[in-house]
Structure formats: C-alpha cells, structure tokens
Specification:
CATH superfamily of the largest domain: 2,3-Dihydroxybiphenyl 1,2-Dioxygenase, domain 1
CATH topology of the largest domain: 2,3-Dihydroxybiphenyl 1,2-Dioxygenase, domain 1
Number of helices: 4
Distance between the termini: 27 Å
Number of domains: 2
CATH class of the largest domain: Alpha Beta
Order of helices and strands: EHEEEHEHEHEEE
Structural class: alpha+beta
Radius of gyration: 16 Å
Length: 138
C-alpha cells in the first residue's frame, strides 16, 4: 500500500451540481469529509478531489481564483488501465454535462507513442485528460 495520496482542491460554483457530476462519472463522495462548504470525491485509493465552494476556497489562498471557464488553469491527466476506460470515463463525463475538447495535433502526437487520450472540461471549467499508454510501445 502506498503511503502517498494526492488531494486536488478545486473551486466550484455549485457544490451540489459538481458532486452530482463526479458521481455520474463513477467516482464516489466520501461523506466523512463532506459538508456545505466542501465535498471529498474519491477517484481511487490514492487520489481524491476536494470540491470547495469558491467562498471557502478563498480561505486557502490570498491569490485570486482563476477563471477556468475563460482560460485553462491546469490540465489534470489521469492514467487509466485501457483505452476503453478512457472512452467510458469521457463519454460519462460528456453525458453528465462536460464538454469534450478535440485536439487533433495532440492526438496525433499521442498515437505516435502508443497513447490513447481524450480531453473533457467539467461544468466548472476544469480540464481533465484521461489517457491510456501502451507502455510496451513507448
């Protein structure tokens, strides 16, 4: 068992909408770390998202919150076990309200090294890049 975990803190406009979105893509809410200000979304045993209302998020930093609807603040790449898992996750995200971003040049570069990836933007503008890499081809 790994002793390291990552918690990605994401500011969200509507906490209930964001919880519903991430549940729709198959991730679980950890009720022990969820209240009216924040929700813990369990991606797997070592990765969690902390969805924070924008008001609560401002207590973590004096810097302004990035406008992720207008600009990309970060891209969250998530390695998955198969190309099918990439497609299932992305299709579920789009069905739950995400927007898929098509990047033909990036996809061509990925194909050259044996990768399959897609990109979706969640309802708060956070960019997700699930991918599968055939390591033997890399």
């Amino acid at each position: 068992m790994s002793t390291k975990m990552i918690f990605i803190n994401l500011p969200v406009e509507d906490l209930n909408r964001s919880k519903a979105f991430y549940e729709a893509v198959g991730w679980k809410v950890n009720a022990d770390f969820t209240d009216e200000n924040a929700a813990c979304i369990v991606v797997d045993d070592n990765i969690c998202l902390m969805l924070l209302t924008k008001t609560f998020f401002t207590t973590f930093s004096q810097r302004p919150i990035a406008d992720t609807v207008a600009a990309t603040a970060a891209a969250y790449a998530l390695a998955l076990a198969s190309a099918d898992e990439v497609d299932v996750l992305t299709d579920a995200a789009v069905a739950a309200g995400a927007t898929e971003e098509h990047c033909p040049d990036k996809r061509a570069q990925e194909a050259e090294v044996g990768m399959h990836g897609r990109t979706f933007i969640d309802p708060d503008g956070h960019q997700w890049e699930p991918f599968y890499m055939a390591y033997q081809a890399a």
